[in-house]
Fold these 3 entries.
Entry 1:
Amino acid sequence: MTEPPYHLPVLASELLGLVGERQRVVDGTLGDGGHARLFLDRGARVLGFDRDPEAIRRAVTRLASDRLDARQASVYSPESLLAVRAFRPDLILLDLGVSSRQLDDESLGFSFRPGVPLDMRMAREGRPAADLLNSADAGKLTRIFRDFADERRARRLAAELVRRRATARFETSDDLVRAIRAALGPRSGPADFARIFQAVRIAVNDELGGLAEALPGFLEALEPGGALAVMSYHSGEDRLVKNALREWGATCVCPPKTLRCACRGRPLGRILTKKPVGPTADEIAANPRARSVRLRVFEKARDEPQG
């Protein structure tokens, strides 16, 4: 029997081909341990993080390795970053978003299947999605739908939510789906629901904010010659990562029209993926949720500049 999709590591061969035989790996989004197992099988040590306690329990049980140190925490937290630095990794891997198992667990509230509660919190911390949808003003809702869902009718959708919640609170997926259909029209369907629900999830968990703040720290924590590999499933995530890697790989980052370079004057490393790596047709057929993944990899400079 083939493994369930929860255990299929996305872009496995592409990732291994790019990062080589690295032996001290931080898996910042451990999940069920699919990617961690790739590196454990190569003899590596893995420091893994996940906010979901059930994910940590499953990964530890499934991998059963004394070379795995699994911690229930956001890899973006200051405490986690200290642990990453102390580990001295030569590879940091981030497989962003939520896992297939989380999407399929209706109690977590990520799905737009009928009757699912509007929760979307990755570790049951903070305010659930229902609270956000019932309290955020129209301006904030517009920004969420525009920036995180690339929705051109974001203002209309936000106004529809505000109108509807005046008479009945948003509680389940059905409430949000009905609002989407009312605002976007009867031809709106699963692709639209997926975009909007994803945008709400990103806002609930502050996924882009945490990523943006943590990326420089991850680069600093890497050993010379180490690599940062990021798999993103959302245009905002991918754009953020692309811009960071482009800046790190530039020789000069002075503002335009600066007459004399006053910045670091050297690249911090090199981009190993000139274009993002996507899934093959065979991988999409085996795991349709992998269709939007984009992998970018940056290798930190091996030597400090000579003064």
Entry 2:
Amino acid sequence: MNRRQFVFASAGVAFLDATHAATTGKYSLVIKGGRVIDPSRKLDAVRDVAIAEGRIAAIAANISAGGAETMDARGKLVVPGLIDIHTHFTRTSDGASLCLADGVTGLIDAGSQGADHISEAVAVAKAAPQQARVLINIGRAGIIPEGDTMDLKRADVAAAREAIMRNRDMIAGVKARLSRDVAGPNDFEVLQRAQQVASSFQLPVMIHMGQTISPLPKLLALLKPGDVVTHMFAPPPNSIIDESGHILPEVTAARRRGVIFDLGNGRTGHLRWDIAEKVLAAGFLPDTFSTDWTPEGRTTQIIDFPNVMSKFLMLGMPLDHVIACATSNSSRVFPVFHDRGTLKQGAAADVAILELREGNFSFVDNFGNQRSGRQRLFPSATVLAGKRVASRS
């Protein structure tokens, strides 16, 4: 039996265990009375969610818990565990746990380290309680104040390939930060080198766009299906829209051939309200949401993933689409998450319980501009592999 057959066989056994529990009523946990929103199943209804053997066993009205532990989710949203494909959680040993308490049951560190120190990021990712992987920065020193690849010698293809070979199970892709203060005039060559590395292992490249020296269409031409453009709401120069507010034809063509466009909220230069409004008005909705999480972001702008999602409720996106951008859509980007982002029977029981509050909430973009919204999502509880996780204090 090869590895692929083993994975599918194991998933089949887990599904049968969950199915047996559904027919016998032997559950370990039942989440009661929440509004279940699962975009992967187009489900939006008040239901109970029963869990057994670390898997979703049943979703129905009024499930009898028997002797199982129960969680009261009345008045709250019950959604698949959130998947954040752009964070920098490896900068701190407790980053993954902090994100988990916010409902994030899968996460990617997007290029904090390059070949020189990738083992440090990998060690933090391996210790994470939830599924976690890293992208290797094409700049071998990782993120540095003087610019990751301002010195082109740091974009070392051989070093990156060797680092991936040593950590193939944990490196999910290659990150190329292309802003003028990171790569300078080297941006196009840096991206070419990132693709050389990625193509050796059939991995995606994630590019950090916005404020590049090269025009965005020139950079997009190097992207292949499955690559990710993050910071998609960055303002000019080299935004994804022209001066008239129309999406660049090269951007539309990139999406058509399978390039993924991601929010990447961050804190500096990546999100401006007027650009986001114009892009959404043009009908170009994000494929995925991500936070660009850092420890510093917990106190300003980002706060947590549900807060970032709430910004797009304020901008007029429907709730189910907001949930999809953080769950089912994100699950399709990296193979490690392909069986996540769903509450279907037999799936891993990773669940986020969120509270959608009504009121007057202030949101800020990366340029200090404040907007008010009538709704905000707050993390309430997390279930990982069928077990309740300690809530955020």
Entry 3:
Amino acid sequence: MATNKRQFTLRLNEENFEKIKYIAAENKRSISMQIEFLIEQHVKEWESKHGKIEI
């Protein structure tokens, strides 16, 4: 399946990986989609405090 998403390697310690895996399963998401969701939430929070990031 074609996607416009950039791929990269992410290294996590075992405990954080297992916790993200658990949360992803609870939310019926893949681990990748859960991490993407968490990043999006953090960016929104950061921008609400500091202003929009212009790319």
